[in-house]
Automatic annotation (TrEMBL):
It comes from Salipiger mucosus DSM 16094. This is Branched-chain amino acid transport system permease protein LivM. The keyword Cell membrane applies. GO terms for molecular function: branched-chain amino acid transmembrane transporter activity. The keyword Transmembrane applies. The chain crosses the membrane at residues 34-55, 62-80, 100-119, 126-149, 169-189, 223-240, 260-283, 295-320. CDD domains: TM_PBP1_LivM_like.
Length: 327
């Protein structure tokens, strides 16, 4: 077993054991922190498909994160006893079922990724970065003006949505659901990276002209990766909104896009467990240093600077003792 695989196994074991220990010690807040880390890791896994496998530097992934969140908020608000949408008599059937909400979030964010990707991939380099940022800001300002669903104040959901056979109001069962979905996303990333599609996508990232020469369309490969990436990030957004029982335009801000990208870079771009390591470190620093100073991002910046300068493979690459991408 390589050092990277051993590190991945230990990290996964920690994600299982720490919440169980917190439950035994009656510390639900620790479980909530772990849930936040797992959900952010899921969003980062989504971005890692576009960035790590496809080489697509997107600053608009918060749009998919927010679309997933609003998919949850809108469906759940229509299922609640009160009616927050007097201005919008839309015929939407509300639901409090997590599987249905997840499906809607995946489809909505995947469709948005298809449209945004089809337009953005007409460009490359810094132009691609800026156009994805522009699309993200368009969605952000739209939600601010969407008064029917809270506008700038956001939308509160007073009771967490349900999953058949589980008490999702308890911290541990909901954490378990999020962890299972994260593991499924990691499995998908691993399968994609090792599949013919993943190999072709990697080749399109490195030498697009050669991929086109053998009859493959590099743009189509990138678009498929971008859609899958957006769909997974949208699922994470739905879970994040359910965790907080609140959705707001802040989920679609460019700062959120930057935060998701930081998780990938911190853990290791293209690494299987890179987003997980990045999310765990980020949430831990936020909790420990956030109580000391509101300027805790300074320390995060120093760590990120060190990673970029001396550990191009991120935390996982540093542990593995080599740079590069997916193993």
């Amino acid at each position: 077993m390589t050092r990277e695989r051993l590190f991945n196994a230990l990290l996964l074991a920690g994600l299982v054991l720490v919440p169980l220990a917190a439950q035994a010690a009656d510390e639900p807040f620790t479980i909530t922190l772990a849930t936040r880390a797992v959900i952010l890791a899921l969003a980062a896994v989504g971005l890692n498909i576009a960035l790590g496998l496809g080489g697509l530097v997107s600053l608009g992934h918060a749009a998919f994160f927010g679309i997933g969140g609003y998919a949850m908020g809108i469906l759940a608000s229509h299922a609640q006893s009160y009616a927050p949408l007097a201005e919008w008599p839309i015929l939407i059937e509300g639901t409090k079922s997590m599987p249905v909400i997840w499906l809607v979030a995946i489809l909505a964010s995947g469709l948005a990724a298809l449209v945004i990707g089809a337009l953005s991939l007409r460009t490359s380099g810094v132009y691609f970065i800026m156009i994805t940022l522009a699309f993200g800001q368009m969605f952000f300002f739209f939600t601010i003006s969407w008064a029917a669903y809270g506008g700038e104040d956001g939308l509160s959901i007073y009771v967490r949505n349900g999953f058949p056979g589980l008490n999702t109001l308890a911290p541990l069962p909901f954490y378990g659901l999020c962890l299972v979905l994260l593991c499924a996303a990691l499995w998908l990333f691993d399968r994609l990276a090792k599949s013919p599609f993943g190999l072709a996508l990697g080749a399109a990232r490195q030498v697009p002209a050669r991929v086109a020469a053998v009859g493959l369309d590099p743009t189509r490969l990138r678009l498929v990766a971008f859609v899958i990436s957006g769909a997974i990030t949208g699922l994470a957004g739905a879970l994040f909104a359910d965790l907080n029982r609140f959705v707001s335009p802040a989920m679609l801000s460019w700062q959120m896009s930057g935060e998701i990208m930081v998780l990938v870079i911190l853990g290791g771009v293209g690494r299987l467990f890179g987003p997980v390591a990045g999310a765990v470190v980020y949430v831990t620093l936020e909790h420990l240093l956030g109580g000391i100073t509101e300027f805790w991002h300074i320390f995060l910046g120093l760590i990120l600077l060190g990673i970029v300068l001396f550990a191009r493979g991120g935390i996982v690459g540093l542990v593995a003792g080599r740079g590069g991408g997916h193993d």
